[in-house]
C-alpha cells in the first residue's frame, strides 16, 4: 500500500503541469490572434505617445507659436538633407551581394527598399521585410540571397548607428544623464551579433529556428570571410555618412524652431537623431518606431532646450520622414508601373535581365 501511495503526489504534479501547459498554449494562441496582437500593439504605441502627448497638451500655446515662427529655409534644408540620406539606405544589399550567388544592383535594391518603406507602418512592423523579398523575387533575385542581404543590412544599420551614437553622445554632454551608458550597451549587443554573423554564420545557423532564416544564413556563409568583412566595412561607412546627413536634417529642424541655436549642438543633434532611430528600430511592437522615437527625442533633447521646442522638433521629424518615405515610394511605384506597361507592350523584353519588372507581374 505504501508503494502504491507514493506516486500520487507525482501524478498530481504531472496533472498540474499539463493543465498549466494547456493554459499557456491557450494564452499563446490568443496572443497570436491578429486582433489581439493589433490591440496590444496599439496600446503599447499609445503608452509611448503619452509623454509627448501630455507635454504637447500642456504647452500647446507655445507649440502653436513655434509653428507660426518656423523658418522655412531651415525646414527646406532639413528636407534636402533627409532626401540625400535616403539614397544611402539601399547600399548594404548591393555591397553584400558583390560576392554572393546572385548580385543585386543598386537600382533593384533601391526599388525594393523605397517601394516597401510604407509597409513598416502596418501592424507587426515586419511587413517591410517580406515585402522587400517579394519585390526582389519579382525582379528575378533568389529569395534566400535577398533574405541574407536583409540580415546583413539590418546588422550594419544597428552597428553603425550605435557607433555614431556612442561617439557623439559622449562628446555631447550626455554622460551625466546616463544615455551614453545605454548607447554603449546597445553597441556591445550589436558588436556581438555582428561578430557572430560575420565570422561564423554557419554556427549562427544552428540558433535560427525558421527554415527561411537558416537558408539565408547559409547564403551568408557562402560568401568568403574576407569578402564579408570588406562588404560590411563598406556598408558601415555608407551608413555612417547617412546618419550624419540625417543628423544634419535633424539639426536643421532645431534651427527652424530657434535660429539662435549654437552650432556646437550639431553633434548633439546627430547623436539624438541616431539613438532615437535605434530605439524605434529595436522596438518590434511599434510600427516604424512611432511613439518610441518621439519619446526618445523628447527625453534626449530636454536637457538642451525648452520642452515645447523639443516637442515641435520631434513632431516635425516624424512628419518630414513620413513625407519623404511616401514620396520615394510613390515615385518608385510609378516607375515600376511604367516599366510594366512597356513590358506588356514589348513581350520580347519580358525576360531581359535588365528589365526591373521581369517577373514582377507574377508576384503582385
Observed structural traits:
364 residues, mainly alpha, 16 helices, globular, disordered C terminus
Describe it for me?
- It is a single chain.
- The protein is built from 16 helices and no strands.
- It is mainly alpha-helical and 364 residues long.
- It has one domain.
- The radius of gyration is 24 Å and the shape is globular.
- The model is unreliable at 350-354 and 359-364 (pLDDT under 50).
In short:
Helix content is 75%, strand content 0%.
Q: Helix proportion of residues, in percent?
A: over 70%
Poorly predicted regions = 350-354, 359-364
Number of helices: 16
Number of domains: 1
Percent of residues in β-strands: under 5%
Largest sheet: none
Q: SS-based structural class?
A: mainly alpha
Taken from the alpha-carbon principal axes, the silhouette is globular
The SSE order reads HHHHHHHHHHHHHHHH
Q: Evaluate the radius of gyration.
A: 24 Å
The total count of strands amounts to 0
Average pLDDT figure: 79
How far the N terminus sits from the C terminus, by CA atoms, comes to 71 Å
Which helices and strands, and how do they pair?
Blueprint: H1 2-5, H2 7-31, H3 34-58, H4 60-68, H5 72-86, H6 91-96, H7 106-116, H8 128-138, H9 143-171, H10 179-199, H11 201-205, H12 211-222, H13 225-257, H14 265-281, H15 292-301, H16 307-345
Amino acid at each position: 500500500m505504501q508503494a502504491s501511495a507514493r506516486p500520487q503526489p507525482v501524478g498530481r504534479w504531472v496533472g498540474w503541469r499539463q493543465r498549466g501547459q494547456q493554459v499557456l498554449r491557450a494564452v499563446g494562441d490568443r496572443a497570436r490572434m491578429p486582433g489581439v496582437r493589433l490591440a496590444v500593439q496599439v496600446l503599447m504605441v499609445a503608452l509611448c505617445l503619452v509623454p509627448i502627448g501630455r507635454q504637447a497638451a500642456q504647452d500647446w500655446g507655445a507649440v502653436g507659436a513655434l509653428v507660426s515662427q518656423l523658418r522655412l529655409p531651415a525646414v527646406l534644408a532639413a528636407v534636402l538633407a533627409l532626401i540625400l540620406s535616403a539614397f544611402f539606405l539601399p547600399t548594404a544589399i548591393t555591397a553584400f551581394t558583390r560576392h554572393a550567388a546572385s548580385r543585386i544592383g543598386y537600382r533593384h535594391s533601391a526599388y525594393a527598399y523605397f517601394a516597401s518603406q510604407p509597409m513598416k507602418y502596418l501592424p507587426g512592423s515586419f511587413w517591410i521585410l517580406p515585402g522587400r523579398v517579394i519585390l526582389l523575387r519579382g525582379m528575378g533575385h533568389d529569395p534566400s540571397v535577398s533574405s541574407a542581404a536583409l540580415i546583413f543590412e539590418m546588422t550594419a544599420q544597428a552597428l553603425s548607428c550605435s557607433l555614431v551614437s556612442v561617439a557623439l553622445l559622449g562628446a555631447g554632454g550626455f554622460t551625466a544623464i546616463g544615455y551614453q551608458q545605454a548607447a554603449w550597451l546597445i553597441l556591445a549587443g550589436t558588436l556581438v551579433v555582428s561578430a557572430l554573423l560575420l565570422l561564423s554564420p554557419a554556427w549562427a545557423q544552428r540558433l535560427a529556428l525558421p527554415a527561411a532564416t537558416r537558408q539565408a544564413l547559409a547564403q551568408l556563409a557562402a560568401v568568403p570571410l574576407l569578402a564579408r568583412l570588406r562588404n560590411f566595412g563598406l556598408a558601415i561607412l555608407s551608413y555612417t555618412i547617412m546618419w550624419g546627413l540625417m543628423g544634419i536634417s535633424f539639426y536643421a529642424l532645431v534651427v527652424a524652431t530657434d535660429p539662435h541655436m549654437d552650432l556646437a549642438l550639431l553633434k548633439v543633434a546627430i547623436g539624438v537623431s541616431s539613438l532615437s532611430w535605434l530605439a524605434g528600430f529595436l522596438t518590434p511592437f511599434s510600427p516604424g518606431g512611432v511613439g518610441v522615437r518621439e519619446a526618445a527625442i523628447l527625453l534626449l533633447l530636454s536637457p538642451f532646450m525648452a520642452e515645447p521646442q523639443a516637442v515641435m522638433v520631434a513632431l516635425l521629424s516624424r512628419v518630414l520622414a513620413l513625407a519623404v518615405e511616401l514620396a520615394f515610394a510613390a515615385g518608385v511605384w510609378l516607375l515600376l508601373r511604367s516599366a510594366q506597361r512597356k513590358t506588356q507592350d514589348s513581350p520580347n523584353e519580358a525576360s531581359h535581365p535588365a528589365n526591373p519588372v521581369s517577373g514582377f507581374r507574377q508576384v503582385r
